[in-house]
Specification:
One of its GO terms (cellular component) is cytoplasm. Its EC number is 3.1.6.-. Pfam families: Sulfatase. Keywords: Hydrolase, Metal-binding. The protein contains 17 helices and 16 strands. Strand 4, helix 8 and strand 5 form a beta-alpha-beta unit. Strands 1, 2, 4, 5, 8, 9, 10, 11 and 12 form a 9-stranded mixed sheet that branches. Strands 3-13-14-15-16 form a 5-stranded mixed sheet. The chain folds into 3 domains: 49 residues; 356 residues, Alkaline Phosphatase, subunit A, CATH 3.40.720; 77 residues, Arylsulfatase, C-terminal domain (2-Layer Sandwich). It has 522 residues and is α/β, with parallel strands linked by helices.
């Protein structure tokens, strides 16, 4: 029967067959009815599969400690980042995107909590803040939201959050790094300990550990490429978290050799030491090199930093090529950013525990369906907008627990920035307010203020805070800073610093001790 009726091509033939069917035996009628039902089910299945296929995939790439100005396309002619440059050319760049701050010396961890919850610094639910249990229970995670909306979620690389949060977020994972950084005594970047994810009732069996035998960035890219070349029945959301360019600063010699220290130009804001103890001046990041720093020490450190970034860029290129080979490039939203920046010798600092632009500002590039090509706008938003933006761009409803805004209106061209001012925070030591033109940094423990005209002095070299004509500006900016503190639930009271900040579980203890060889700072 199937062969008799499978090639009907016009209405007349269909009428003939229906007439024949009406006069045929009941057995034949039932057979055709079953055939019709099966055909209908097949059509429905195809429709469902097509609908799933049409959903936009997401590839989220997050580097570690990569400052905004370490991308060739952003004006740094000393570094080669061809693959990140290509993302910028084929997509949209946002030039002023900031990490909101940290309640910990390990700035990477709070940044990731904000990215994955879409919430403000003191309201992420797993930090030191004391939120009620109902609020914490209702906080959605980015990967979890994609899972709940029919996506296959995959993660590789640095997570730096809990295993429980990882399992809420991802179906699959390979070469996952749960910790904060690679350590030289544990293998450094070339023998990093990763874990794979295997569903199991035993916590130890769920995340079996293994030592990689190649650079961490290559291991992570391998895992991402393997996922992209595998069979997938659903749209996917990929989270790729590189450990680089966080120290230890190691890259293959082919890359290290491109950036010898004596070929590196010192940054304009280079200084042997910071002029005062900005808080946590003796933290791990700051004692990686002796203080005062010599020019060559910083040139060498920058060269190593650049080598790691170019090597990571090459791994990003491998991932993009695999995405292209899979046929899914045109149907994938790609977001590239970093958790924050890094000083590397600027202002006499090495780490990110400060409020200068080199440490709080990150690159942010988006490429994919409905994203303009080659466009650049200020942005003026925080990294916690990653979550609401990616779900909004692919048509998923933003969860109620998310506090940060989607930047989709910027992508559509409705405006070019989200906020008129940006807030920043580092423990109880620093608070910051930045506008398009000016930046104020306040040090509550020291009662000290810095004011920079960032429009004319982007390297933040000239402190205007003591000029009489700037006092009204400082007062206005301090008032805006207090407004922001209310928005983000910042507990710090400038007049009662220690007691007010003790409301956080991190407390105010400074465990960093000055090395004997270092000079004491005011």
């Amino acid at each position: 029967m199937f062969s008799d009726y499978s090639n009907l091509t016009n209405l007349d033939n269909m009428r003939i067959q229906f007439t024949l069917r009406a006069t045929s035996s009941s057995h034949k009628y039932k057979s055709i009815s079953r055939l019709a039902v099966l055909c209908l089910l097949g059509i429905l299945q195809c429709s469902v599969a097509w609908g799933a296929k049409e959903k936009t995939n997401v590839l989220f790439i997050l580097t570690d400690d990569q400052a905004y100005d370490t991308v060739h396309a952003h004006g740094n002619n000393r570094i080669a980042t061809p693959n990140i440059d290509s993302l910028a050319k084929q997509g949209m760049s946002f030039t002023h995107v900031f990490n909101q701050g940290s309640w910990s010396g390990a700035v990477c961890s709070p940044s990731r909590r904000m990215i994955n919850t879409g919430r403000h610094l003191y309201q992420t639910g797993r930090g030191p803040e004391k939120l009620d249990s109902k609020t914490v229970a209702n906080i959605k995670l980015m990967g979890e939201t994609f899972k709940e909306n029919g996506y296959q979620t995959f993660m590789t690389g640095k997570w730096h959050m809990s295993e429980q949060d990882w399992e809420r977020s991802f179906d699959q994972g390979k070469s996952i790094f749960m910790h904060g950084m690679a350590h030289l005594h544990k293998g450094g970047q070339f023998n990093t300990e990763f874990v794979d994810y295997t569903p199991s009732s035993s916590a130890k069996e769920k995340f079996p550990a293994f030592k990689a035998s190649k650079h961490s960035s290559e291991v992570i890219a391998d895992a991402a490429v393997d996922f992209l070349t595998s069979e997938k029945s659903k749209p996917f959301m990929m989270y790729v978290g590189f450990l680089a360019p966080h120290d230890p600063r190691q890259a293959p010699q082919a890359y290290m050799g491109k950036y010898p220290g004596d070929s590196i130009e010192l940054p304009k804001s280079f200084a042997p030491s910071h002029p005062f103890n900005q808080g946590d001046y003796y933290i791990r990041d700051e004692i990686l090199e002796n203080n005062p720093r010599t020019p060559y020490v910083i040139q060498k450190a920058i060269g190593e930093y650049y080598a790691m970034i170019e090597h990571t860029d090459a791994q990003i290129g491998r991932i993009i090529e695999a995405l292209k080979a899979s046929g899914e490039l045109d149907n994938t939203l790609i977001v590239f950013t970093s958790d924050h920046g890094l000083a590397v010798g600027r202002h006499g600092l090495l780490g990110k525990q400060n409020q200068y632009d080199h440490s709080v500002r990150a690159p942010f590039i988006m490429q994919g369906p409905n994203v303009p090509k080659g466009k650049s706008v200020p942005g003026m938003f925080y990294l916690n907008s990653v979550f609401p933006t990616v779900v909004d761009m692919v048509g998923i409803e933003i969860p109620e627990s998310v506090q940060a805004p989607s930047v989709r209106p910027l992508v559509k061209g409705d405006k070019d920035k989200v906020f008129d001012s940006i807030y920043g925070s580092y423990r109880h030591f620093q608070r910051m307010l930045r506008t398009d033109d000016y930046k104020l940094i306040y040090y509550p423990m020291l009662k000290k203020t810095q004011l920079f005209n960032v429009a004319e002095d982007p390297d933040e070299l000239i402190n205007l805070a003591n000029l009489p004509e700037q006092q009204s500006r400082i007062e206005n900016m301090m008032a805006k800073l207090e407004d922001w503190k209310k928005v983000v639930n910042d507990p710090l009271d400038n007049d009662n610093v220690i007691e007010s900040y003790k409301t956080l579980s991190t407390g105010v203890n400074d465990s960093n001790k000055r090395p004997k060889a270092w000079p004491a700072l005011p």
